[in-house]
Amino acid sequence: MAKAFFRLQKFLRRTQFLLFFLTAAYLMAGSLLLLQRTRLVIQQGSRGTPANQALPVLDEMTKIGIVDPRTLQSSRPAPRLLVGMDALQEPALDWQHSPHWLTSRNSELRQLRRRWFHHFTSDQEPLQTAGLKAMKHTTEHKGTYMGCFIHDSRERTLKGAVFYDLRKMTVAHCQDACAERAYSYAGLAYGAECYCGNTLPAAASKPEECNSECKGEKGSVCGGVNRLSVYRVEELRAGVKRRRNVIYRGCFRAPENLTDTFPASLIQPNLTVEMCSEFCSKKEFPLAVILGQECYCGYPTGRFPLRDSADRQRCSWSCNTSNTAEGKYCLVYQTPVQDTRCTDRKFLSTKSKVFVALSSFPGAGNTWARHLIEHATGYYTGSYYFDGALYNKGFKGEKDHWRSRRTICVKTHESGKTEIEMFDSAILLIRNPYKSLMAEFNRKYAGHLGYATDRNWKSKEWPDFVNSYASWWASHVLEWLKYGKRLLIVHYEDLKQSLIPKLKEMVEFLNVTVTEDRLLCVENNRDGNFKRSGAKQKNFEPFTQEMKDLINRYILTVDEALRGRNFSGLPREYVPR
Fold first, then answer.
1. Which of 62, 462, 482, 489 has its CA 20 to 30 A from that of 189?
2. Residue 476 CB-half CA count within 13 A
3. pLDDT class of 399 with cuts at 50, 70, 90
């Protein structure tokens, strides 16, 4: 008995010593970490903040003059994730091209799930009224502060361009962005949202209700909850160009009753595109319509849906004639003013009973499809991952937990059995693998809106990328066909070519009812923030014959699998080259 007691006493003494040692080591590690963080803050503070930070704006394609919409590329790739082929059992695929590291798909994907960056995702609490005295209403741009106004997201007064920067928004950024597009007023709300327009809001609010600090500038007011801090934009500094982006939409048959269809009009001798666009922009309409010496402003509607465009020569021939056997034709241009009939979005008020996935291979246009769905339904879409860049551009569902069921659908690139069976139904978005691979490779090396360099394409990374990702493109579709419970197959090319019919199918699948005007508004805002910047190589062919042979085998396999499940096969342009 004494021997056993002695052993117990010895063990307890050792335990006390061990606990003491671990506590001391923990305190030392904490002290070192604190010192390191303090040093980092001091170093960052000594560098200062650039005074002329550029604002990431939604309209990356703004230039002087007129842009043909055929030159605009609508889709943007989704974030890259590593997915393996281990669950695929299709014998037609050539697995010698699938590297072993892809089998670790699920563990790597889990590492890419939501990362809650507190400095990024935590909502800024409204500032106390006592602190408003320290707020600044003057910035480097020297714009005149007009006051605090009520902001209604559904019936916006500032109906021009809209920008989001949920991390770096400042008063100067918003003023510069609006001034470069020749707007008269710049308004800020929620500390991170910027609105441009030419008409001062009518409903003023109490000054203390604009109490949200700018996300990128401490001590400055950027509106509040449903409140706008409005500035009158001064003339641009010398050397800074205004970017009035006017997009040519096409030649269309004019409606029978022009005055009933278009709310504003102007008759001007020697009318030019610039005159009409400027007139409609100041009236805050997204469309400028030219018929001879007549200028009309309005929206796409059921009477004027902007479908079935005609040859431009028909507009030129009928401009100076009052009537023709086939009616009048008019030239249509998109002004910088945003169509706001479909820009209001929110989370679902009650949890969705059906858990819907928006699934695609990376580079297949998932982000663009989310843009369309959000504007068509008025509800945010969620994401299986957290992409700060997308959240920063207004995809607020990125911040919401993917299983909250507060979003209309959830973006995912998952293709494992367990991950697929978590969803009740899914919209499966498929894109030509040649285009998808190039889009994802561009995203990997140049981000969402850039192009990979020649050096990237000519490196050994490109062949390895094709060998690995081509098989993933096939396995992603095959596994969703195998394990998906209820699927709607949407081909990216069909959505791009026939936007409204395909979007109607998607909205009906999501069990949401929308109006025709809202769909036309979506079509009017179809491009969103999805134009890559930089020079794009013409007639660029990065695929070798060996790569084509590999991809073509996967195309035939997927086409056969789709037809086997009574879906339509892949579009013709997927057919092996």
1. 62
2. 31
3. confident
Q: How far apart are CA 453 and CA 445, in angstroms?
A: 8
Of 335 and 510, the structure prediction assigns the larger pLDDT to: 510
The residues with which 195 forms a beta bridge, in sequence order, are 162, 187
217 contacts: CB under 8 Å, gap ≥ 6? 169, 170, 171, 172
pLDDT in tens, 12-32: 566 666 677 677 777 777 666
Give the model confidence (pLDDT) of 65-123 as tens digits: 334 333 333 333 333 333 333 333 333 444 443 333 333 444 444 444 433 333 333 44
Q: Which two tokens stand for residue 550?
A: 């590999």
For the chain, what is the total number of helices (H) and then of strands (E)?
17, 18
DSSP 341: G
| C-alpha dihedral, 513 to 515 to 518 to 524, nearest 10° | 110
pTM of model > 0.90: no
- Pairing mode, if any, of strands 144-150 and 227-232? antiparallel
- Please state, in angstroms and rounded to a whole number, the distance separating the CA atoms of residues 62 and 58: 10
Structure tokens at 321: 């004639």
Q: Within 13 Å of residue 466, how many CA atoms lie on the same side as its CB?
A: 22
- For residue 450, what are its two tokens? 């850039």
Bridge partners (DSSP) of residue 221 are 213
What whole-number distance in Å separates Cα of residue 164 and Cα of residue 149?
19
Task: Give the Cα separation of 297 and 267 in Å (integer).
Answer: 12
List, for residues 234-280, the tens digit of each pLDDT value.
765 444 445 557 889 999 999 988 989 999 999 989 899 999 998 99
Q: Which residues of 261-282 are buried (b: 16+ CB within 10 A; e: fewer)?
A: bbeebbeeeebebeebbbbbbb
Specify the DSSP element, H or E, that contains 251.
strand 245-253
Least confident of 4-13, 292-301, 319-328, 386-395: 319-328
pLDDT > 90 in the chain, percent: 39
List pLDDT tens digits, range 487-520.
999 999 999 999 999 999 999 999 999 999 899 9
* Alpha-carbon dihedral 279, 285, 291, 293, rounded to 10 degrees: -10
Q: Phi and psi of 168, rounded to 5°?
A: -130, 20
Residue 197: strand, helix, or coil? strand
Q: What is the per-residue DSSP string for 400-438?
A: S-TTS--SS-EEE---SHHHHHT-SEEEEEE--HHHHHH
Q: Is 239 helix (H, G, I), strand (E, B) or coil?
A: coil
CA distance 253 to 514: 26
pLDDT confidence of residue 371: 94
CA distance 432 to 73: 15
C-alpha angle 552/556/562, rounded to 5°?
140
Rounded to 5°, the CA angle 344-350-355 comes to: 95
At 555, list the tokens.
């195309």
Identify the band that residue 307 occupies on the pLDDT scale cut at 50, 70 and 90: confident
Give the C-alpha separation, 548 to 200, whole Å.
57
Taking phi first (over 0 means left), then psi (-120 to 50 degrees means alpha), and beta for anything else, what does residue 422 get? alpha
- CA proximity to 127, closest of 231, 220, 230: 220
DSSP state of 135: -
Q: What residues have CB less than 8 Å from 483, skipping those under 6 apart?
A: 417, 420, 421
